[in-house]
Design a protein that fits this description.
With about 280 residues, the chain is mainly β. The protein is built from two helices and 22 strands. The protein has one domain. It has a 22-stranded mixed β-sheet that branches.
């Protein structure tokens, strides 16, 4: 069975609740857009007028495959500039779907809103399973006002961003490493390619030992160039954290902010190929 959206897809566009959890049968192929005609994806966003109800839009897909070719995507975003007391809440949960493609020609916004005391909140939550997400330009998350929040939760997912990752104070990125490198990979060398405001946090969570001791890197958050100074500063004040509690002691002690001079990238993790010296005595 196939469920195909060829036009722009607004889910929960007009206020109130819009909930889709699971699919009516196993093996459903859910797709949005095509490479030739990418779509616009909006989940739980307020766009042009004041709504008269609070609402939540949850798109939770299970037991099938998911493919998206998008121009832009927004989850839990408010574009409304006038005063209002209502909130935009959107969730995209693909943890139990097979991620085939997620290609974005422009940008992705999660949990962002107008910065005004008259605005109630924006909440955006995105969950990905193992796979690859490609964002050509920017990943923009969070705003400045509580109780807004923006969450990107990556379970073995690599998210490649071509220009800038901007995390405002209400943003959280969780990367769960399950044997292989994952997380944000920022390919731009611009000075502002990664911007993490105070209050925002990137968590790199090592849930398993490396699955392949021949992989060059086992880690999360990869940045082009030598960004040791930036990552060290982010770690010092709690904006970049890592959890090694699930790793074997020999691996846990290796986790650090590292620069790979051969590939000219900075990352959080280690090279599994360097296991130290084993001395056998007879």
């Amino acid at each position: 069975m196939e469920f195909t959206v060829t036009n722009d897809f607004y889910f929960g566009y007009s206020g109130g609740n819009a909930i889709l959890r699971g699919m009516p049968t196993h093996g459903v192929a859910f797709s949005i857009g095509t490479p030739e005609a990418p779509s616009f994806l909006s989940i739980g966003s307020i766009r042009t007028r004041e709504y008269t109800v609070d609402g939540e839009a949850d798109l939770v897909l299970e037991n099938g495959t998911f493919s998206a070719h998008l121009q832009n995507a927004e989850i839990g975003v408010s574009h409304y500039t006038g005063p209002h007391d209502y909130w935009a809440v959107g969730k995209l949960d693909l943890r139990h779907s097979a991620l085939q493609d997620f290609e974005v020609a422009d940008s992705v916004e999660i949990g962002r809103g107008q910065q005004s005391a008259s605005y109630k909140r924006s909440v955006g939550r995105v969950y990905f399973a193992t796979g690859t997400v490609n964002i050509a330009t920017n990943l923009l998350m969070g705003d400045t006002l509580a109780p807004s929040s923006a969450l990107l939760d990556l379970s073995g997912t690599t998210v490649t961003v071509g220009q800038q990752v901007e995390l405002w104070p209400t943003a959280t990125v969780n990367t769960r490493l399950r044997g292989w490198s994952a997380g944000l990979e920022i390919t731009s060398r611009a000075a502002d390619a990664l911007s993490v405001s105070n209050g925002a946090v990137i968590n790199v969570i090592f849930e398993q030992d490396p699955a392949d001791l021949e992989q060059r890197r086992y880690g999360g958050l990869t940045l082009a160039g030598d960004r040791i100074a930036l990552c060290t500063a982010l770690h010092a004040d709690g904006r970049l954290l890592w959890d090694t509690s699930a790793l074997s002691p020999r691996w846990a002690k290796k986790v650090a902010i590292r620069y790979d001079a051969v590939e000219d990238v900075t990352y959080v993790g280690f090279d599994p190929r360097t296991q130290g010296t084993l001395l056998l005595m007879r």
